[in-house]
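Lab channel / #folding
Pinned by the channel admin:
"Please post every new chain as: sequence first, then the structure tokens as a reply. Keep commentary short and put observations after the output so the thread stays searchable."

First post following the new format, from NK:
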Amino acid sequence: MGATQTREPQSPGRRERKKAATRKAIADAALRLFLERGYDDVGIREIADAADVSTATLFKHFPSKEALVFDLDADRETGLLDAVRRRPAGRPVLAALREYVLAGTAVYQDAEMERFLELIRSTPALSEYAHRMWMRHEGALTQAITEASDAPQGDPTCAALAHFALETAALARASADPRTAVESAFDLLEHGWNATRPGV
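Reply from TO:
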């Protein structure tokens, strides 16, 4: 009787690399097809076939069709909270948030990113999903601002600042001039309507 062959178990590092590679292949295939033919005209099975995976594998990595387009959201909340909690001494919270959101608009100058943004703007399901993705961090950002400003829990001004700071991302995505849109929104947050539009 021949010796029984045993499969050598994969190390955790190798498993994670394979999962990451599969996830990237799926996301890349989805974005390519969406840009070529439009979001609504591409099916999940087509994406799975293009990535050479089963639909079951696709859904293990992405819970919905919309999620296929937004593969870089995992670190967003960490970045937002770090902008507030790790800001340099003496830098106001609002200035730190302005800087963080403005840094995100830099990628909009890339031609490929412009195609990506146009896909989002022209697809209501993606626009709504992108907005929900940002706004789901509202509670955590409110808490970080509350702690940073030594405000009492439940302070509505901290909640308002978190809400409107996050909404600036939607303005940037929809604007032909994202940087100006963000600067204008934060000018309003910093100085108020009466200062930016006196007499109006």
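NK: The two ends are 92 Å apart (CA to CA).
TO: also worth noting, The domain at 76-196 is CATH 1.10.357 (Tetracycline Repressor; domain 2).
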